[in-house]
Specification:
single chain; mainly alpha; flat; transmembrane helix; EmrE-like; Guanidinium exporter; membrane; cell membrane
Length: 106
């Protein structure tokens, strides 16, 4: 169950990062509220996952999901550049997430 909570926390990290970008520096109300609610929910789920998962594993996977998810959303919805180096960097993050999962006893 901890991995489910961690996955949900990571996906919510993507939501709040995207909403923060859309809030234009917290000047728009709706995306600002989405940012804050998603942040709180993400941190809460991360803390639940950390009850059983090691700190290093949980935090690395959480930030990795957020980083790769934000990368994908940036390309898909914000027109950010797709370059070979950015793709390699995202693949390295994903490989690190997989390695952390495989090395975890949970």
């Amino acid at each position: 169950m901890a991995w489910f909570y961690l996955l949900a926390a990571g996906l919510l990290e993507v939501v709040w990062a995207y909403a923060m970008k859309k809030s234009e520096g917290f000047t728009l109300l709706t995306p600002s509220i989405v940012t804050l609610v998603a942040m709180i929910a993400s941190f809460a789920l991360l803390s639940i996952a950390m009850r059983t998962l090691p700190l290093g594993t949980a935090y690395t996977v959480w930030t990795g999901i957020g980083a790769v998810g934000a990368f994908i959303l940036g390309i898909t919805f914000l027109g950010e550049a797709i370059t070979p180096m950015r793709i390699v960097a995202a693949l390295l993050i994903v490989s690190g997430i997989v390695a952390m999962k495989l090395s975890s006893a949970h």
